[in-house]
Amino acid sequence: MFDFGVVTNWIDLFLRSNMSENMALFVEFVLVGFAILAVYAVLALLLIYIERKVCAFFQCRIGPNRVGPWGLIQSVADMVKILLKELIKIDRADPVLFRIASFLVIIASICTFGAIPFDPALHAVDFNIGIFYLLAVSSLGVVGILLAGWSSNNKYTMIGAMRSGAQLISYELSCGLSLMTIVILSGTMQLSEIVNQQSEMWFLFKGHIPALIAFVIYLIASHAETNRGPFDLPEAESELTAGYHTEYSGIQFGFFYLAEYLNMFIVAAIAATVFLGGWMPLHIPGWEGFNGIMDKIPPFIWFFGKTFFCVFLALWIRWSFPRLRIDQLLHLEWKILMPLALINILLMALCVI
Amino acid sequence: MSNSALFLVVLITAAFMVIAALLIAKWLAPTSNNPHKGDPYECGIPTRGTSWIQFRVGYYLFAILYLVFDVETVLLFPWAVKMKDMGAQGLVCVSFFLVILALGLAYAWKKGALKWK
Q1: List of chain B residues whose C-beta atoms are within 8 Å of the C-beta of residue A214
Q2: What pLDDT shows up at residue B88?
Q3: Which residues on A lie below 8 Å from B26 (Cβ)?
């Protein structure tokens, strides 16, 4: 099976044989940075295209079909267009906070993106407290959203930011608790170690019923974390124009837009890594022939397959359900998901003893 | 390669992307001006007053509750990592902690803090 380790080892050897140790390290760092940027940008464009196409098919439309074959270059054209748009200054806004807000959102998103294990060799940041890191960095986005709403000095953005803040912090609890269920099962927070432990069987199947409950809770909570689908009342267009990013224009709006789509990918990737075995192939204990065939498929295809499956679930939910009211939203989190997640932790602890 | 260095690389990459995109936009984007361009967009109606005002207290209640439970999550994670080694003893000890927390949630529930008014 094809492994990116071959490529990265070759680059490492090539650089080390041609230049000094420190220089090689520096060049490798620059390469890592460019690789992350390239994958980030390509995935963002791809996700926007997929979203528009899938949404169109759900609504019996064709979707983008003019630029390029099947409209494939549409999102590239959109990105070029958004770069060419003027950045409008708002007279009464707080100029510094107004800028910083959009930077915070996208920087939090890229930092989370760097910690995702795409492949055994394509894993940039692998802390031993990986899940902690993911939760900590991704929650920085809330600060950016609150700042964006506050600094614009506009009533719509203010209401949107407050709703978004209440929603994000509430659902973060269920996210954290459902990931903790898997930490109890695996006994580690390091993402590479979590993936390696799933070589026999994915945690979704290994963890009996508690893992299944945790997976469902994580899917709902992480979907709410991305401000999409039935949980998109921070940007409910019929009441708040565009929510917290009403006043943003040009590429600053683009930052929010990119971060929203990439966050959708990131939460799907975390779900795939923690519950569905990351880049590990599907193995059924005892079925040697089947496992052998599954091993032939390269790890990164497994990873992207699982992740895009979760992304598709998110799109399906988004285009199928009507928007919730804020009291229903908070009711769902605080009275259903949170108590359920707490009980689920005890259940999982009972399972592993 | 150490992880902290790689984290710095990711952070610098993010900053680089933001700065590069802004510079490109500054360089390529047209600028024009008119007296109403900087007005806040509230559907064309002239805005009244500032929006930097005191906001409803309901959000604050949820923020306080969140704080309690988020700190709890942070405290529980180290326990979760070591749960397998500690066995039944660890479960019994932490269940006291969880019961006290659940009592807190039940109190907030009974007091009506979870109800959106």
Answers
A1: none
A2: 83
A3: 87
Q: What is the pTM of this model?
A: 0.88
Q: Please report which confidence band the pLDDT of residue A1 belongs to, taking 50, 70 and 90 as the band edges.
A: low
Q: Do A83 and B25 touch (CB under 8 A)?
A: yes
Residue B1 has a pLDDT of 54
Average pLDDT over residues A157-170: 85
The structure tokens 């022939």 sit at: A289
List pLDDT tens digits, range A47-92: 989 888 888 988 888 888 888 788 888 888 888 888 888 888 777 7
Of A269, A182, A178, A172, the closest CA to residue A227 belongs to A172
Among all residues of chain A, which has the CA nearest to that of B3? A125
Chain centroid to CA A75: 19
A335: left (phi over 0), alpha (psi -120 to 50) or beta: alpha
Residues of chain B above pLDDT 90, percent: 0
B-proximal residues of A, 57-86, CB under 8 Å: 83-86
Chain A interface, best mutation among B17, B28, B32, by max A CB count within 10 A: B17
Interface contact A331-B116, CB threshold 8 A: yes
- A189-221 pLDDT, tens digit per residue, is 888 888 888 877 787 777 778 888 999 999 999
> Do residue B22 and residue A251 have CB atoms under 8 angstroms apart?
yes
**A308: helix, coil or strand?**
helix
A-B contacts at Cβ under 8 angstroms: 199
Return the pLDDT at A118: 85
Q: Which residues contact B69 (CB under 8 A, 6 or more apart)?
A: A173, A338, B101, B105
Which of A66-97 are b and which e, b meaning 16 or more Cβ less than 10 Å from the residue's Cβ?
eeeeebebbbbebbeebbebebbebeebbeee
CA–CA dist A231, A321 (Å, integer) = 9
Domains, chain B, ordered by start: 3-111 (1.20.58.1610)
ipTM comes to 0.85
> Is A257 in contact with A102 (CB distance < 8 Å)?
no
Q: Do B116 and A36 touch (CB under 8 A)?
A: no
